[in-house]
Amino acid sequence: MSFLELAHSRKSCRCFSTKPVPQELVQQIVEAGMIAPTGMNLQPFYFYVLNDLKRNQELFGQIEEPLKTKVPGIVNAPLNEMSQHSTYDAPCSIFCCLTNAQSNTKEFDLGIAVDHMMMAAESLGLKTLPACLPVVAAKEHCEKAIGMEDGQSLFIVLGIGYEHETVKGQAKEKKKNLVKFL
């Protein structure tokens, strides 16, 4: 598969299967993030991997109330409906954190690393969902739950897993008019 074919096939997964993600695949995905290019080769990020569906659901179940409080559109939604906005039903979550490295490009660098992990997952037959909602609504809770070290800050959570069979094959909408050649 060419890179463009891979990029066209990648889409955010809104419903994951409960099938566990093999640890060796998770290791390959994380390696893709670790080798991503960064400004001055600083790698100003750190990854915490939670590859356990039950523990993911427990963690995200604990942030249901903060989500409802801080995100008005979710006020009456049960957590299982919130999964389309978070990684609640993903069997694997990667908590992507910024470090206190002196870098003016660390958010950009982490974005590249996350993209590398999403493309690696896609190449391995897995789907992803990059989610900021847990960070917005319950950053401190998530940081404490994963045992984050001082000098790190949660930036985004990447849900990884196999796509649930009920949503397989749904095409990604193609955007137009995003470029002007000069």
Task: Give the secondary structure arrangement, pairings included.
Layout: H1 3-9, H2 23-34, E1 45-50, H3 53-61, H4 64-70, H5 79-82, E2 92-99, H6 106-123, E3 127-131, H7 133-145, E4 152-161
Antiparallel strand pairs: 1-2, 2-4, 3-4
Helix pairs in contact: 2-6, 4-7
Walk me through the structure.
Keywords: Flavoprotein, FMN, Oxidoreductase. This is Nitroreductase family protein. Belongs to the nitroreductase family. It is a single chain. The chain has 182 residues and is α+β, with helices and mostly antiparallel strands. It has a single domain, classed as NADH Oxidase (3-Layer(aba) Sandwich). It is built from 7 helices and 4 strands; from the N terminus they run H-H-E-H-H-H-E-H-E-H-E. A 4-stranded antiparallel sheet has the order 1-2-4-3, with helices on both faces. Helix 2 packs antiparallel against helix 6 and helix 4 packs antiparallel against helix 7. The longest helix has 18 residues.
The proportion of residues in beta strands is 15-25%
By CATH, the superfamily comes out as NADH Oxidase
Using only CA atoms, what is the Rg? 16 Å
Based on Cα principal axes, name the global outline.
globular
Discrete helix count: 7
Mean pLDDT: 86
- How far the N terminus sits from the C terminus, by CA atoms, comes to 30 Å
